[in-house]
Amino acid sequence: MDELIKSVAEKASISAEQAKVAVNSVVEFVKVKLPVIGDQLQGLLSGGGDGGNPLAGAAEALKKKFGF
What we know:
Helices cover 72% and strands 0% of the residues. It contains four helices and no strands.
């Protein structure tokens, strides 16, 4: 997540602390609106999950959620 925070800070010309707040706000928004994707995004940004495929496991989670 540090890499994303640094990128946001540089591109938006804001402090790293402000960028961290912005990134966390977006992640929380996505988690509320699209929980399956939000969980995957959180895992990716935390260094977990499959870094090669940020949506790895999303289809399986959707299947479980909807009983398929």
